[in-house]
Amino acid sequence: MTAAERVLPLLSNLRSRGDDRWIARCPAHKDRSPSLSVRQTQDRLLLRCWAGCATSEILNALGLDWSALFADGGPARRPNAVVEPKVRAGQSLETWRQAELKFCGEELRRRDMLRIAVTDAVYDGTLSEEGASHYLAAVYRGYSELENRWHRLLHVDQCSDTLSLWRESGKGAA
Length: 174
Known about the structure:
Elements: H1 3-7, E1 12-16, E2 21-25, E3 36-40, E4 45-49, H2 55-62, H3 83-124, H4 129-140, H5 143-154, H6 159-168
Helix pairs in contact: 3-4, 3-5, 3-6
């Protein structure tokens, strides 16, 4: 297993920047946009946080040791009772955010399709304007809150923002 195969799956918002080069959000600080550069050389993986985090801080946040950066690094993950639950929690929150984002997008799309159908029915003369206002009132009930939630989910930059959205959803209530 290469160093890239060990380290890259642990990074969030990973994007390729060409052959053997990537950028990702730095796990060692609250990164709003990708500031971690990753480059694969012949025998090692090079990490550089442009916000100033030390490589040791990045490895610690991922629960890795220095051997993870080398081609013959062997077992790279070390058990860390503090980091492991945080990594799993972050992954779970991201999974929840993606599912919520999909749900909100589909619900907004469904309501927009209903609005179009009601408007078409009024133009066709199959529905009166009074009947249309009744249907549209139901379609638009809660629409702005749903749209706001979708926008917030789409533009979440930090894990703490996702956590606050999760708590607001009622899933975080005990």
